[in-house]
Write a structure and sequence with these properties.
With 730 residues, the chain is mainly α. The protein has helices at 10-15, 33-36, 62-67, 71-82, 97-108, 139-153, 159-173, 240-252, 258-268, 330-337, 379-386, 388-399, 401-417, 450-461, 467-478, 508-525, 531-549, 572-575, 597-607, 612-624, 647-652, 684-691, 693-703, 707-724, and strands at residues 273-274, 318-319, 340-344, 350-354, 363-364, 372-373, 582-583, 588-589, 657-661, 667-672, 678-683. Among the domains are: 234-412, Orthogonal Bundle (Peroxidase, domain 2), CATH 1.10.420.10; 450-578, Peroxidase, domain 1 (Orthogonal Bundle); 583-711, Peroxidase, domain 2 (Orthogonal Bundle). α9 (258-268) crosses α13 (401-417), α11 crosses α12 and α20 crosses α24.
Length: 730
């Protein structure tokens, strides 16, 4: 028996709840190392989305391919799909727009600010777990409906672009003027392993809050398997006021303020409907658990027609407005003009309908000719009326429809483009001219010649700035980049601005000194080089010197052209989430880190799109360069700090050293086995390169005879990658 208070698609979630790991699960199967040693460091994230998974060549350029497409023709093809109802999944009111808007929203809406993961890039909705999440019921049908369009354009239009564009075309088809569209998104070819929460059952939320009610970072949704919040209120309690707290908490972690949140909810619910037309036990398993003959389609409904008026997705039934296929102000008009009472849907969920009896026949049924229904509101819709902050915004939109249109257009564009990265990645004829602060704009920089760069490097090395200072500063600037949403990086030199200049990991006092000296050199030279380029050039000069002092000649590649952002171009609050709470490359770990130190090292490396060898080379190189954030000697396993050598690996693997836990938590001491004399101190992220079998294998490669040159080459390549990952202008 399903309780009526179960949250959205809870009945479906019961069918898809994962089974706890047991010996029976792995009977007759190869067992992963995590089965035997669950605490072993997992390097899997550094190997995901291997290029070999893609059917296209390594040099295939999604953006360039999309640029060849006739966007008007593509949109016309999508429009045809929207208004051509298919017998196997008939369109509500003959228009698939509501379904496509939901698909686009749920693709983009997984984005979260604390680690930049989720979002539309990659089209992860095609894979598990997202493709089989309870909140994504029936979106498998939306993608199948779009398949003829995808088939026609092939690799010239990624699924990631097509899903978002289908949402835009749907809005436009139903009378709304969008702000525009940018293509260039890349498709993934395998599922990302993302931490979506600690629960082991879908729809759970019993472990993601601490005793004070704070939501665990970096997650943003309030239930496992939901995009945002439970539409029936917190844990299905039907309380709009408490639901408002949840909405604000979740949407803010997805980069939306109150005004954007209200605009998105009101705009998204102006069109389409929710579906709870049959009983929960009518619905079969999700795509990942569906039988082979269903060919990847899930949630098969055995009751009635199995679709149309019998469609079961959320368990909630009804449309919000009297014109669910035409843009209007009716959502807000209904919300404020009427009082609302609880009403049970056929699917068992609770919606709210007007107390005014004259509204009972005001909405045409989506499938049954001649049938009329009342408009509905969800508990979370009523939050816009009951919460004082939300209400003030919603009432303003209600009284000023054009302002509402503009707010929704901006919020929708942000929602669907937030994780696309800087404007340099935007492709297509519908890219808006307006520049938004959430796009982290950077002015175009000036280029300089190699000869001029050489003179500047010479001046930097004569300035009194040390190798560790220059390396730390360059790393602090560039390593803010994260491939998950392509934010951060050295371009813009925002390390000069709040909040980055004050982050403890950046050693603010030292940073101010280095930046002041670099700026003096820049101005004295008369060069047009930006500070962003000076910071990176300083790091390159330091590494070349460190290698030379160790007896090696290297050239660190440098390409000028970075620009310097201003405070006016910088949303300080939005950038604050990039602050490193842990950075193993600088041996830095602070309170507030999501995971233990070793796991945070892999997390940081993953966000920098590094492989395991690249991570290993960078850690070993940063240690011998003396680049620890606090200037400590922990892990600096060399007698010649500031020189680029393979000493870290040689001394880490030296069996004449015996390691023991130190007096301070997280620190270890390396003593000479013969004399007992203290030789080194290190942290767990140092010693893991000797204790973890995979990392030890890499360390051995760098420590062996002939390994020093391999290491230095790998370090320079990895360093250059980190310094240039945000150069989408190249």
């Amino acid at each position: 028996m399903i309780r009526k208070t179960l949250p959205l698609v809870a009945a479906i979630a019961i069918a898809m709840a994962p089974v706890a790991h047991s010996e029976n699960m792995f009977s007759g199967k190869a067992k992963p190392n995590s089965f035997w040693w669950p605490n072993q460091l997992d390097l899997g994230p550094l190997r995901d989305n291997d290029e070999r998974s893609s059917p296209y060549s390594d040099d295939f350029d999604y953006a360039a391919a999309f640029a060849t497409v006739d966007l008007k023709e593509l949109k016309a093809d999508i429009e045809k799909v929207l208004t051509t109802s298919q017998d196997w999944w008939p369109a509500d009111w003959g228009h698939y727009g509501g379904l496509m808007i939901r698909m686009a929203w749920h693709s983009a809406g997984t984005y979260r600010i604390h680690d930049g993961r989720g979002g539309a890039e990659g089209a992860q909705q095609r894979f598990e777990p997202l493709g089989s999440w309870p909140d994504n019921v029936s979106l498998d049908k939306a993608r199948r409906l779009l398949w003829p369009v995808k088939q026609k354009y092939g690799r010239n239009v990624s699924w990631a672009d097509l899903i978002i564009l289908a949402g835009n075309v749907s809005l436009e088809s139903m009378g709304f003027e969008t702000l525009g569209f940018a293509g260039g998104r890349v498709d993934d070819w395998e599922a990302d392993l993302v931490y979506w929460g600690p629960e082991t059952k879908m729809m759970g939320n019993d472990k993601r809050f601490d005793k004070d009610g704070n939501l665990e970072k970096p997650i943003a949704a309030l239930h496992m398997g939901l995009i945002y919040v439970n539409p029936e209120g917190r844990n299905g309690n039907l309380d709009p006021v408490m639901a408002a707290e949840d909405i604000r908490k979740s949407f803010s972690r997805m980069a939306m303020n109150d005004e954007e949140t209200v605009a998105l909810i009101a705009g998204g619910h102006t069109l389409g409907k929710v579906h709870g037309g049959s009983k929960p036990d009518c619905v079969g398993p999700e795509p990942a658990a569906a039988p082979t003959e269903q060919q990847g389609l899930g949630w098969k409904n055995k009751c009635g027609k199995g679709h149309s008026e019998d469609t079961m997705t959320s368990g909630l039934e009804g449309a919000w407005t009297q014109t669910p296929t035409a843009w209007s102000i009716l959502y807000l008009d209904n919300l404020f003009r009427f009082d609302w009472k609880k009403h049970e849907s056929p699917g068992g969920g609770t919606v709210w309908i007007p107390t005014d009896e004259s509204m009972m026949q005001s909405v045409p049924d989506a499938h049954v000719k001649g049938k009329r229904n009342p408009p509905i509101m969800l508990t979370t819709d009523l939050s816009l009326k009951e919460d004082p902050g939300f209400r003030k915004i919603a009432e303003r939109f209600w009284k000023n429809p054009k302002e509402f249109d503009k707010a929704f257009a901006k919020a929708w564009f942000k929602l669907t483009h937030r994780d696309l990265g800087p404007r340099a990645r935007y492709v297509g004829s519908e890219v808006p001219e307006e520049v938004f602060i959430w796009q982290d704009p950077v002015p175009e920089g000036k280029t300089i010649s190699d000869r001029e760069a050489g003179k500047l490097k010479s001046s930097i090395l004569k300035s009194g700035l040390t190798v560790p200072e220059l390396v730390r500063t360059a790393w602090a600037s560039a390593s803010t980049y994260r491939y998950s949403d392509m934010r951060g990086g050295a371009n813009g030199a925002r390390i000069r601005l709040a909040p980055q200049k004050d982050w403890p990991a950046n050693n603010p006092q030292e940073l101010a000194k280095v930046l002041k000296k670099l700026d003096e050199i820049r101005q004295d030279s008369g060069s047009k080089i930006s500070m962003a380029d000076m910071i990176v050039l300083g790091g390159a000069a330091a590494i070349e010197k460190a290698a030379k002092d160790a007896g090696h000649k290297v050239t660190v590649p440098f390409v000028s052209g970075r620009g310097d952002a201003t405070a006016e171009m910088t949303d300080a609050e939005a950038f604050d989430v990039l602050e490193p709470k842990a950075d193993a490359f600088r041996n830095y770990y602070a309170e507030g880190a999501y995971y233990p130190p070793k796991e945070m090292m892999v997390e940081k490396a993953d966000l920098l799109a590094l492989t395991a060898p690249e991570m290993t080379a960078l850690v070993g190189g940063m240690r011998v360069l003396g680049a620890n954030a606090d200037g400590s000697n922990h892990g600096v396993l060399t007698d010649n700090p500031g020189q680029l050598s393979n000493d870290f690996f040689v001394n880490l693997l030296d069996m004449s050293t015996e390691w023991k836990p130190g007096a301070a938590k997280g620190l270890y001491e390396g003593h000479d086995r013969s004399s007992g004399k203290l030789k080194w101190t290190a942290t767990s992220v140092d010693l893991v390169f000797g204790s973890n079998s995979e990392l030890r294998a890499l360390s051995e490669a760098y420590a062996a005879e002939g390994g020093e040159k391999i290491f230095i080459d790998d370090f320079v390549k990895a360093w250059t990658q980190v310094m240039t990952q945000d150069r989408f202008d190249l």
